[in-house]
Design brief:
It comes from Emberiza fucata. Helix content is 29%, strand content 26%. By secondary structure, it is α/β, with parallel strands linked by helices. The protein has four domains: 200 residues, von Willebrand factor, type A domain (Rossmann fold, 3-Layer(aba) Sandwich), CATH 3.40.50.410; 171 residues, von Willebrand factor, type A domain (Rossmann fold, 3-Layer(aba) Sandwich), CATH 3.40.50.410; 180 residues, von Willebrand factor, type A domain (Rossmann fold, 3-Layer(aba) Sandwich); 31 residues, Laminin, CATH 2.10.25.10. The two termini are 71 Å apart.
Length: 747
């Protein structure tokens, strides 16, 4: 981030003596490379050279050899260790006599960076003084455990701004930049300033200490006499010595200091003034981790949590964490949702009554206070209790609207020890909607409770529970409303595998799935059009997009679809959809999103990737639903993204994924559409896109979509539209377009 950009000559003096050793020499090289990161190396700005010194100086490379940062750092890496005795004074004399090799002859500021342990065998004081008298700025950088007294003699004044330690390369690079920033380098970045702070310089020194005493014999003045005495003995010891000092460093305001990331997001700085937030699941609504989900629907929402021994303490805590994260994501200050929480085992408690908390903080604190009870699992009894008492009128509920839908979300992972079927029916009789959440172990019981597989949420593992938050949000807000795309216009095609690999029994399941899916759409010329293709080795159009204009006609046609029974080729089916189904001639409407749902057992997918990509290129979403074992990489190439692939283990489980598939289809129906994809122009006409419109450029044909051949000798004409007129599209205009197209076909 910080970089010294000025006309500047910098020469590294690298200690290559045996007191350093090869390991510390390599660290010196690494440090020199790190310092280069703080320099704007360029022929017209900072130039860098290097001398390695021990008993004699050796020029590694002059300042005019390498003119980019990358070249300099690569050359530093290739420097080899030349072990010998250390004579720092000789290296300084070399500088005094020869100057900076390849430098600009003192026409620009000169900086000498000495990287050494400061254990020279000769005198350094005089040559150090002479170097500084030449107006050369000298930085002394300690390596290993340096002799700081000698390095201080080498460094320019004040020493606390010119003494650095190579052990912390990032800190030392900051120190170098901080000293050079004023007045040599360009001004410090806005908001940054140089500050001093206490620091210490460490070294190892050998000291003599008293180890003890021993009996020794000493002579006396009397002849032939000796006397015993206690004599001290000492030993040498290496100790860590700390020298207090002050360091000067450039401090910049961290863009994360203002804590911009909300809802537990982690702020990651990117330079001086940019950052990005790593958001928890469900909090990616904007760059600051705002709630990604929202409950904009008005409901009275009561969570019923299993707190029995069967769910275990771990499971209860998992439900609590899920509940907290979900409510943090969806409940805002202006949320129209009233929330309550109940927990049960063989008894029921309502610690958070409906509408009790008006702000998320107090709600979270109350959820934190929930404790595990661990009794028997009586889910049926709990459901009855909640139906009778969970939504009762009381002062707490004074501002809750009575006409809001009432929703109970059951979180359980333990099979009930009492009957749930009758209790669930009782709850529904009170006009309370039930949503069940549990693991795959609970699928059957939750389906019994909710009465509808689409009102159950099944997670595969503990982490997958948290991935289901968007699904729960959609189910809560779809309460009381039929699922489907409602008034969103959509051209939808199903391609169903009717090969022998699927078999007759499973084909009937696929046919039933298509039939029940169609019930979720408003089928007419203006809203949803549906086409059906079956395929084996070849593809067959059962009915086109414009064949049926009502739900009853579509359902009746689906019931008559025959089983084919030969080999499967999904590629031929996709090509058929591209050329014979999703076309203007076959009823596809410009300006309307288009989706193909491919239902298969995974056979015959080898040739499907290229035609699937062709469909996507023309703006047609390919949604792949595969039942049974199949190569996932092949399926992903066909689907184009994991978001558009549903891989189901068995045909029996297909029904449980219908809600998810319809939700994905409807998301596509709401996305922006390209009016020229697929091409609405017939007979090789070229679609030219305009703002909210398009036009067809025809060759040998005429009409708004190049649908009429130009008679020989006549000029192109169109009674309805001039050849270059723009066609405006809106949902209301779709019916007119379809009728006009049918008329042109008859002509």
């Amino acid at each position: 981030v910080m970089q010294c950009s000025a006309s500047l000559d910098i020469l590294f003096l690298l200690d290559g003596s045996y007191s350093i050793g090869k390991g510390s020499f390599e660290r010196s090289k690494h440090f020199a490379g790190k310092l280069c990161d703080a320099l704007d190396i360029h022929p017209d700005r900072v130039r860098v050279g290097m001398i390695q010194f021990s008993s004699t100086p050796h020029l590694e490379f002059p300042l005019d050899s390498y003119l980019t940062k990358q070249e300099v750092k690569e050359r530093i890496k290739r420097t080899t260790f030349r072990t010998s005795a250390l004579e720092t004074g000789w290296a300084q004399n070399y500088i005094l006599h020869k100057g900076f090799p390849g430098g600009r002859n003192s026409s620009v500021p000169e900086v000498l960076i000495i990287i050494s342990d400061g254990k020279s065998q000769g005198s350094t004081a005089v040559p150090a003084m002479q170097v500084k008298e030449r107006h050369i700025t000298v930085f002394a950088v300690g390596i290993k455990f340096p002799r700081w007294e000698e390095l201080q003699v080498l460094a320019s004044e004040p020493p606390e701004r010119h003494l650095l330690f190579a052990g912390d390369a990032e800190d030392a690079a900051n120190g170098l930049y901080s000293t050079l920033s004023d007045p040599v380098c360009t001004a410090t970045a806005p908001g940054c300033k140089v500050e001093s702070h206490p620091c210490e310089r460490r070294t190892l020194e050998t000291v003599k200490e008293l180890a003890g005493s021993y009996v020794c014999w000493k002579g006396s003045k009397q002849p032939n006499a000796v006397q015993a005495s206690l004599c001290p003995f000492t030993r040498w010891k290496r100790v860590l010595i700390k020298h207090p000092s002050r360091c000067f460093r450039t401090v910049c305001p961290d863009p994360c200091d203002s804590q911009p990331c909300q809802n537990g997001g982690t702020c990651v700085p990117e330079g001086l003034d940019r950052y990005h937030c790593l958001c928890l699941l469900g909090y990616g609504g904007d760059i600051h981790c705002a709630a990604k989900l929202s409950l904009e629907c008005g409901v009275d929402l009561l969570f019923l949590m299993d707190s029995s021994a069967g769910v275990t303490l771990e499971g209860f805590l998992r439900f609590k964490a899920f509940l907290k994260r979900f409510l943090q994501a969806v409940v805002g200050q202006d949320s129209p949702v009233s929330v309550g929480v109940a927990q049960y085992d063989d008894s029921v408690k309502v610690p958070i009554e409906l509408g009790q908390h008006k702000d998320a903080l107090s709600l979270m604190k109350s959820i934190d206070a929930l404790s595990f009870s661990g009794g028997r699992t009586l889910t049926g009894r709990a459901l009855r209790y909640i139906a009778q008492h969970g939504f009762r009128g009381s002062p707490v509920f004074a501002d809750v609207q009575d006409d809001l839908p009432r929703v109970v979300v059951l979180l359980t992972d333990s099979k009930s020890q009492d009957s749930v079927a009758e209790a669930a029916e009782y709850v529904k009789d009170q006009n309370i909607f039930l949503i069940g959440i549990g693991s795959s172990f609970m699928r059957a019981e939750l389906t019994t409770v909710t009465g509808n597989p689409q009102q159950t949420i099944i997670y595969s593992d503990p982490q997958d529970l948290f991935n289901r938050m968007p699904e729960l949000q959609r189910k809560i807000c779809s309460v009381g409303n039929p699922e489907g795309c409602q008034a969103q216009s959509l051209d939808l095609a199903f391609a169903v595998d009717a090969s022998s690999g699927v078999g007759l029994e499973n084909f009937l399941r696929l046919r039933h799935f298509v039939r029940s899916s169609c019930l979720h759409f408003i089928i007419n010329r203006d809203v949803t059009q549906i086409a059906l293709v079956t395929y084996g080795s070849k593809a067959h159009t059962v009915f086109a997009l414009d064949t049926h204009t009502s739900s009853s006609a579509v359902l009746q046609a689906i019931d008559q679809v025959p089983f084919l029974g030969d080999s499967a080729s999904a590629g031929s089916a996709l090509l058929h959809v591209h050329s014979d189904v999703m076309t203007v001639q076959k009823g596809a409407r410009p300006g309307v999103n288009k989706v193909l749902v491919l239902l298969s057992n995974g056979g015959g997918m080898q040739d499907a990737a290229a035609p699937a990509q062709q469909l996507r290129h023309d703006g047609i979403l390919v949604f792949v639903v595969v039942i049974g074992d199949s190569d996932r990489d092949t399926l992903l190439r066909v689907a184009g993204s994991p978001n558009y692939l549903v891989h189901i283990s068995s045909y029996e489980d297909l029904q449980y994924y219908q809600g998810l598939i319809i939700e994905r289809i409807c998301e596509e129906a709401r996305s922006p559409v390209n009016l020229c994809r697929p091409n609405p122009c017939m007979n090789q006409g070229v679609c030219i896109l305009g703002p909210g419109s398009y036009r067809c450029q025809c060759h040998g044909w005429e009409g708004p979509h190049c649908e009429s051949r130009v008679p020989r000798g006549d000029s192109p004409r169109s009674p309805a539209f001039p050849p270059r007129s723009h066609v405006q599209w809106s949902p209301r205009g779709l019916q007119h377009f379809s009728r006009a197209l049918q008329h042109s076909k008859r002509q």
